[in-house]
Amino acid sequence: MNSEVDRPSGTRAGGVDGGSIPGEPWAMTSAIAIFRDMLKSQIGPMIREHGFRGTAPTWQIRSAYGDYGSVNFQSSSETTHEQVLFYINLGYTPQAWFDFQSNTTGGKPKRGYEFLKDRLYTDDEPRALENQRWSITDHESAIETARRVTDRLNQVGLPQINSWLDPSNRIKQLTTFNSDLARVLILTDCGPSSELDDAIKALKTGPLSDRQPLVDQVVRWVQERTVNS
């Protein structure tokens, strides 16, 4: 996973959130402006047809169980006015994780609190850096890129998010990420059980065992949540 996933957008002229430079005559025809228009006029309507809400660069969908899925378009720090390089991030946030973060931070978590993240690659193989990054330079390339993005979202990205959101798949999917914390949080919303007890034991002895304050915080939160359920 490239480190740019957690790097704020808009830190340079090319960032999605950075904006065009006021007063510059070519600003409205720059690759940045074309990119924004592509998200607004082509990508956004397609994603919303699948039940997502929001506006560029991030759209979210919420399951009947309260879990969240997200699609985010993140501009690379190497973007210029002549070429936009961007990533497509897929996210999944269980309701329990969202509530846990809200409880510990004292407010509604912002973007970046996704529990699971993955990239939508330009091709299935190889899952390499060069296949993580998409590019547009002008109107023609934006049309072609929008077509490819739409195809990849329909074929890979949205099915992945739907699979994360499917309650019958949640534990199976999350075990592929080797996440003891994910199992604890998801099982918490199922109420007290031997599976939850086993998951807590695994959390205490697993990879997060060296972060004892976090583990203790999670365990206390789980106990309070299951008592009140």
Strand and helix map with partners:
Layout (H helix, E strand, L loop, with lengths): L30 H18 L4 E3 L2 E5 L5 E8 L8 E10 L1 H11 L10 E4 L14 E3 L2 H27 L4 H6 L4 H9 L5 H12 L6 H16 L2
Helix pairs in contact: 1-3, 5-6, 5-7
Structural notes for this entry:
Helices cover 43% and strands 14% of the residues. The protein starts with 30 loop residues before the first helix and ends with a helix. It contains seven helices and six strands. The protein has 229 residues and is of the alpha+beta class. Strands 1, 2, 3, 4, 5 and 6 form a six-stranded antiparallel beta sheet that branches. A hairpin with a 2-residue loop joins strand 1 and strand 2.
Main sheet properties: 6 strands, antiparallel
What helical percentage do the residues reach?
40-55%
Strand content: 5-15%
Computed structural class: alpha+beta
- Give the N-to-C terminal Cα separation: 36 Å
Q: For the CA atoms, what is the radius of gyration?
A: 20 Å
